[in-house]
Amino acid sequence: MLSTSKSGHDLDPLDELLKPPADETEEDRLIRLAQEAEARRISLQIDESIKAERQQQKKKSVVRLLLLGQSESGKSTTLRHFQRLYTPSAFREERILWRSVIQLNIVRSVRTILDALTNVRLPLVDSGGEDSDDGSPHIPQELDLLKMRLTPLRHIEALLIAKLIPPSEDEATSLIGNSSVSLFQSHRSRSTERSSRNPEVFVRPGATWKGALAKSSHRDGRPMSLDDARMTTRDEAQEVLHSCSDDIISLWNDKFVREVLRRRKIRLEELPGFFLNDLDRVTALDFIPSDDDVLRARLKTVGVSEYRCEMEAAAGREQGTEWRIVDVGGSRSQPVLATWVPFFDDVDSIIFLAPISGFDQVLAEDRSVNRLEDSVLLWKAVCSNRLLANVDLVLFLNKCDILDAKLTSGIRLSRYVRSYGDRPNDLETASKYFRSKFSAIHREYSPLPRKFYGFCTSVTDTTTTAGILASVRDMVVRRHLKQSKLL
Fold this sequence. Notes:
By secondary structure, the chain is α/β, with parallel strands linked by helices. About 50% of the residues lie in helices and about 10% in strands. Helix 3 crosses helix 4 and helix 5 (about 100-115) crosses helix 7 (about 150-165).
């Protein structure tokens, strides 16, 4: 006869644990059964929630947008506009981190001025300079005294670079070394070194530099919020800039300095990261950057980074849409198209930024290349690329505000762009001319017919840019939904 009893190793210890107590009353039994039923209900609810979330993830619409253009064309500023408009909470919390960038922008502007004053050999008329034996003016004595009083900025520049660039990155040492050695030196011949003695600080795009800066900004190592910043605004760099603000203002407003900058064709006010006209405000001890300050700040990025966000301000079909905006930073030393091509796959739209104000400028990376000519060549390459035959291209003819200032000041566009001819030298005519030229390239070089989207922009202008980006967003979403057969 077979035994029906279980051997010791066949016993399930959980069965023993889950068995009701031997002395369980009827009331206890009812309570236990109700608790078990509630536990099963909660478990099923969690399972259904996880299942629904997974299905929602599968249905989530992902829009991919690529930002292209030469260095200093406005790509990073355009990305910041997207963040300000459609992820405003995160943008506001990060504003305090840009204070260090603005501090560095101010120091670098001062450095540019002092570099220009090094061994001046210009016959400046009515400039106040004292003539030397060979008839060339020396720097006025009061400017020499200003330079001595501004030497603390040397330490501040190295300090800020160290905060912005992680020590593990190769470029940190070389940049800090270059800046600490050569900043504010005044007695060496620099005529052949001007383009290289002020190397620009750059970071890898993405959140890495922000994370490092946030931790370094708080004494206990945790990220600094805007509330923290209002309680603790007196960092060392801000204190030094505040103490030097009067001298920096005197330097910037000096007639001799302005004449030297004019003769050397250095137009600081046209460069990104220019704050010398706002020194009283941005050097105040309680300074907190505004939205406009963040958009105007300059921090060069190299490399490629993808920013992912769900737009907080979206509505209707756009709710739940995940945007992936790829910012392609870089410089002329990198093979431009080779850097861009890997990101052409599965992109919905491209915003190409062409800074048309650069018609009279050359690339910082290659002084033999005109900036406008470089933008035209890059635009041709993008339009003709067969990988992008079905991708909408949105053209931003950027920095129209600077173009307007140049034309108004009397700089003739036709002197640099011969095909412009004898057209009126004003912004409206010039912008229409450039738009027609870029449109013709788009039409001629596109592998397949497609609509041309072109805008004249000043991406540091929050009002007009907000409207343009809203139009671009709507266009991109409509196309994406149509391609996804959701519209």
